[in-house]
From TrEMBL:
PANTHER family: L-THREONINE 3-DEHYDROGENASE, L-THREONINE 3-DEHYDROGENASE, MITOCHONDRIAL. Residues 50-284 form the NAD-dependent epimerase/dehydratase domain. Pathway: Amino-acid degradation; L-threonine degradation via oxydo-reductase pathway; glycine from L-threonine: step 1/2. It comes from Astyanax mexicanus. It catalyses: L-threonine + NAD(+) = (2S)-2-amino-3-oxobutanoate + NADH + H(+). This is L-threonine 3-dehydrogenase, mitochondrial. One of its GO terms (biological process) is L-threonine catabolic process. Belongs to the NAD(P)-dependent epimerase/dehydratase family. Its EC number is 1.1.1.103. It holds the Pfam family Epimerase. It is an enzyme of class 1 (oxidoreductase). GO terms for molecular function: L-threonine 3-dehydrogenase activity. Catalyzes the NAD(+)-dependent oxidation of L-threonine to 2-amino-3-ketobutyrate, mediating L-threonine catabolism.
Length: 364
């Protein structure tokens, strides 16, 4: 790009700076009318310096481990909670409250962060129990993240969710683009995140990437207060006592995914060349089941499992407004998304993991 065009672009960006009043620092290299922003060099893509916010929740530690296992060693986990000792001793951890803009900026600058994975959030059920806090963390916190990412030329990943859809969305299947009128503060905040991220992408060239996750199922990390949590708890209770009390009706169908697929998808979309992304927010899908179907599959391994249904009306109303099946054909066509785990593999893997853990616990 000729120098004059580059300089005039920087001047234009200064005038168009994001809401914090700060200017994006990176010089944009764009071609023609393509608004994508190649502020991250090749070597930075191969060896990104990654900050994960809300890293002590269900997903963050697993993502940090996946990135480290792949040789991307510059990963910093952050949260407002005290890390357990195994996490503290396995890699860098730093305190970061996403509502503290200056502290976040200091972390990004001092550590020369190039990728930001923004996991902090209040999930659907806890969000309904504390709307003011959910609004602050999920919306005000997101604004801080967007401004810092735009200011420092970061590649930004923000997860969205099946909860970004509502009762007026098509539910079986739910496509990427359709009516989105969620009825939870969680869903509203996630639609806001999708739209703000895409707006910053088009307006400021922010390299924003977003996947709508289904309910995520993991064995070695606990869910943080969502509607899909039952699908994790059932495995622990089935292995421990053979009894499970389910808070959703037996025929409540929701999209779900094993954590390894979810984390791999996240890495794949972060590594995808910008030109393969025809959109910046994608549905990703793996399987879809009801509590009854999950219990039947678990009974193939643990035939004595007893399930009792004690419906939580808040969670049931949320689940009844969410997609039953997700259409993720755009992710599959654009950047080659493909899941590995269907229901039988999920159940086998979860029970193997939990069984092995409890055998280790008995030995100690
Ligand atoms: N786990 C799931 O089934 C799904 C998760 N997602 C999204 O993925 C992301 C990660 O999810 P999980 O790990 O399951 O969430 P989680 O609820 O387990 O963890 C969220 C973390 O955010 C932290 N946090 C809360 N307030 C904060 C603040 N002010 N500053 C910094 N950190 C703060 C919490 O301490 C917690 O460790 C979230 O954005 C969630 O919406 C989307 C769909 C499904
Ligand atoms: C699907 C989600 O976003 C989360 N697990 C929740 O149930 O709130």
């Amino acid at each position: 790009m000729p120098v004059v065009r580059a300089l005039s672009k920087v001047a234009r960006q200064a005038l168009q700076a994001p809401g914090c009043g700060c200017q994006p620092l990176a010089v944009a290299v764009t071609s023609g009318s393509d608004a994508s922003f190649h502020s991250v060099s090749f070597s930075e893509t191969d060896h990104p310096k990654v900050l994960i916010t809300g890293g002590l929740g269900q997903l963050g530690v697993g993502l940090a481990k996946l990135l480290s296992d792949l040789g991307k060693n510059n990963v910093i986990l952050s949260d407002i909670r005290k890390p357990p000792s195994n996490v503290f001793h396995s890699g860098p951890f730093i305190y970061s409250d996403i509502l503290d803009y200056k502290n976040l900026r200091e972390i990004v600058v001092n550590n020369r962060i190039t990728w930001l994975v923004h996991y902090s959030a209040l999930l659907s059920a806890v969000g309904e129990a504390n709307v003011a806090l959910a609004r602050a963390v999920n919306i005000t916190g997101l604004h801080n993240i967007l401004d810092i990412a735009a200011e420092h030329g970061l590649r930004l990943f923000v997860p969205s969710t099946i909860g970004a859809f509502g009762p007026t969305s098509p539910r079986n299947p739910t496509p990427d683009l359709c009516v989105q009128r969620p009825r939870t503060i969680y869903g509203v905040s996630k639609v806001h995140a999708e739209l703000m991220g895409e707006y910053y992408h088009h307006r400021y060239g922010l390299d924003f990437r977003c996947l709508r996750y289904p309910g995520i199922i993991s064995a070695d990390s606990q869910p943080g207060g969502g509607t899909t949590d039952y699908a994790v708890q059932i495995f622990h209770d089935a292995a421990k006592s053979g009894k499970f009390e389910c808070n959703l009706k037996p025929d409540t169908r929701l999209p779900m995914m094993y954590i390894d697929d979810c984390l791999r998808a996240t890495l794949e979309v972060m590594e995808a060349p910008a030109e393969t992304l025809s959109m910046r927010t994608y549905n990703i899908n793996a399987m879809s089941f009801t509590p009854e179907e999950l219990a039947q599959e678990v009974r193939k391994q643990l035939p004595d499992l007893q399930v009792n249904y004690e419906i939580d009306h808040v969670r049931q109303a949320i689940a009844d407004s969410w997609p039953m099946n997700f259409d993720d054909s755009n992710a599959r066509n654009d950047w080659g998304w493909k899941h590995d785990y269907d229901l039988p593999e999920l159940v086998q893997t979860m029970l193997n993991f939990i069984g092995a853990e409890s055998r280790v616990a008995q030995v100690h």
